[in-house]
Every structure is written in structure tokens, then in C-alpha cells.
Amino acid sequence: QVQLVESGGGLVQPGGSLRLSCAASGNIFSIDTMAWYRQAPGKQRDMVATMTTSANYADSVEGRFTISRGNAKNTVYLQMDSLKPEDTAVYYCNLRIRARSYLPSRDYWGKGTLVTVSS
User: CB count, 10 Å around CB of 89?
Assistant: First the structure.
């Protein structure tokens, strides 16, 4: 089994920064894709950032958010700068993981961490 644990959410003022972390544990042969999604109240879950060999971002966060892989290879971060009230949402970590070399990869989700941007 694979578990994802997110941390780093909280309350921040507009213009501030937060760094989210996602640590994966369990049966992991490789991580093919790392991503962050978010879901604001009453809205659908949307992609924020993804990373395989390169990073891609939603237009709304381009230039403000940075996705990166930690030195502990099963960790992914989301650095969020110049935060805006519209960034308020529950942020979810999504990893596409291969448990064994001969098995297909599958998606795993964290439980989410709340980010609130407000003065």
C-alpha cells in the first residue's frame, strides 16, 4: 500500500508565502508523475502544477507557484508565493506511482491540506 501525507497549509495574508509538502511511503518502485490540485468551496478540483521531466502550471499560478521534488525522492513540494485570496482552497497531492517494475502505475491522492489567504 501507498500513503501520501500532506502538510504546510494554513492561514496567510495576501502577498504571503507557504510551502506545501507531500511525502509518500509504502511500496514504491517509481513515481512517474507528481502533481498538485486544488478545490475551492463549491468548485471542481483543478490542476495547479504537474511535474514529470519538466513542470507545468495552471495559468492562474504561473510565475507564483513552484513544484519541486525533494532530496528524499518520495517527497514533492509546492512553493506558493504572492498568494491571493482566490488561491484559497484545499490542496491535494497526486502521485502516479508504480509499485513494481512490472506493474502499471496508478494514481494516489493525499487527504488534502487547507490553504486560506485572507487579511
Answer: 22
